[in-house]
């Protein structure tokens, strides 16, 4: 399974998340930071290169 690094919007630590299949993107998932355990949303989408990229944002954005 592929993973990609995302940066937590709360503690700004980077950690790896498992990527969904390309055909299931774009999508948003709820995720708890593996470092500080705060909730966030991670948006997965095609990065334009046929590969999935992930971007984390805070739940209050
Ligand atoms: Zn965090």
Shape: globular
- H/E topology pattern: EEEEE
The radius of gyration computed from the alpha-carbon positions, rounded to a whole number of angstroms, is 11 Å
Helix amount = under 10%
What are the low-pLDDT stretches, counting only 5+ consecutive residues below 50?
A: none
Question: What is the overall pLDDT average?
Answer: 94
What is the strand content? over 45%
Count of discrete domains: 1
- Strand line-up in the sheet with most strands: 3-4-5
Number of strands: 5
Distance between the termini: 29 Å
List the bound ligands.
Answer: zinc ion
- Name the structural class: mainly beta
Number of helices: 0
Outline the biggest β-sheet.
3 strands, antiparallel
Features:
single chain; 61 residues; mainly beta; 3-stranded antiparallel beta sheet; two-stranded antiparallel ribbon; 5 strands; globular; binds zinc ion
Task: Give a description of the structure.
This protein has no helices and five strands. With 61 residues, the protein is mainly beta. The protein has one domain. A hairpin with a 5-residue loop joins β4 and β5 (52-58). The radius of gyration is 11 Å and the shape is globular. The mean pLDDT is 94. The structure holds zinc ion. Zinc ion is lined by residues 8, 10-11, 13, 33, 35-36, 38. Zinc ion binds next to loops.
